[in-house]
Amino acid sequence: xxxxxxxxxxxxxxxxxxxxxxxxxxxxxxxxxxxxxxxxxxxxxxxxxxxxxxxxxxxxxxxxxxxxxxxxxxxxxxxxxxxxxxxxxxxxxxxxxxxxxxxxxxxxxxxxxxxxxxxxxxxxxxxxxxxxxxxxxxxxxxxxxxxxxxxxxxxxxxxxxxxxxxxxxxxxxxxxxxxxxxxxxxxxxxxxxxxxxxxxxxxxxxxxxxxxxxxxxxxxxxxxxxxxxxxxxxxxxxxxxxxxxxxxxxxxxxxxxxxxxxxxxxxxxxxxxxxxxxxxxxxxxxxxxxxxxxxxxxxxxxxxxxxxxxxxxxxxxxxxxxxxxxxxxxxxxxxxxxxxxxxxxxxxxxxxxxxxxxxxxxxxxxxxxxxxxxxxxxxxxxxxxxxxxxxxxxxxxxxxxxxxxxxxxxxxxxxxxxxxxxxxxxxxxxxxx
Length: 433
Ligand code: DLL
What we know:
This protein is an alpha/beta fold and 433 residues long. Helix content is 30%, strand content 24%. It is built from eleven helices and 21 strands. The strands form five sheets. Strands 4-3-5-6-7-8-9-14-13 form a nine-stranded mixed beta sheet, with helices on both faces. The protein has a four-stranded antiparallel beta sheet with strand order 10-11-12-15. Helix 8 links the parallel strand 5 and strand 6. The model has no long low-confidence stretch (mean pLDDT 94).
């Protein structure tokens, strides 16, 4: 179902008109209220009144994570703190966290954008929506909570921890919809199977997964093990949280909420726009945010435009699933690889679980990649050295033939690698520095 027919299926021209009007209002807001933007535009001699079309937007400088870090904690807010009613933050795993503030209006906008995600997945007021994202400074839990309430669903605010109890609640409360990171759903399926329980004990029909990259093969695996239909959704704290882009029933890319965010895709090296359909870094400009507006924010996420019209009737631009982040991209043997490329291949191999870790190191000036993969509990030849070697070689060969990389393969005991909880899983350990 389309939650907001008027805005999700606008004529292109009307959408552009709306975007430019909202952009001008946002530019005035940031110039007046955010010292970082005022100083930047003054320094570059930019007159914001000269930005009259979407093409003109390209004259403005980008905003980076680093710019925002320097505004820690509240310097980039565009309203007085008394108008801020909610604060969230990025986790800060790669540096100082970025703190974001929402006004009452921002929260209204946010919940209606999340309502779009849920409606597109067919969730209605008849559903029981169990949220396994943490209710915390990160945006997943609260973001989905208010969106699900908005469409009148019965919300079960579970958070991510204690998967065993989560499964019991899912069964007893007859949960129909699971909202979580994709890896978490896999964890649920594995635990049930280990306990000898049939996933059909659950009433689950739909899964909404996001917050970390996942491959098409992981989708197939979750769908077949939990017998549900799954929907990808994408967002980031700086822009709003979940609610930036989402899949509809066609499963053909993620629709961007373009009435609230202008999308650009650039080459991260040249900073030029990439030709339509080519992969590049997503850049967003917020159009309606009051508390924390951003102009041309470089997300670090890699995706591409899906061309053509979508059969669902929405007219908004679609992006392909996020293949990874620029800073998660590994360059080995001259190839650019994302962890999701490796995940895709591991699913094709019998005898291992799709849990893995990548360890990067440098030996004699050369980058070395080690891939730790977990074997299934019924993997027998652990004590038979020759068979283990053959198995490792098989995995290494697949990686060479399909990705062109040479990796050292280490087998890990069943259940020894970290599982997904309500938070993101970190796949790459970089020991090169
Ligand atoms: O992860 C917001 C969110 C919560 C989105 C729940 C969807 C569902 P952050 O913690 O700021 O916000 O992390 C944002 O996560 O830049 C991407 O690299 C990654 N990411 C988010 N959604 C997806 C997705 C939330 N569907 C960062 N596919 C983003 C791949 C994703 N990566």
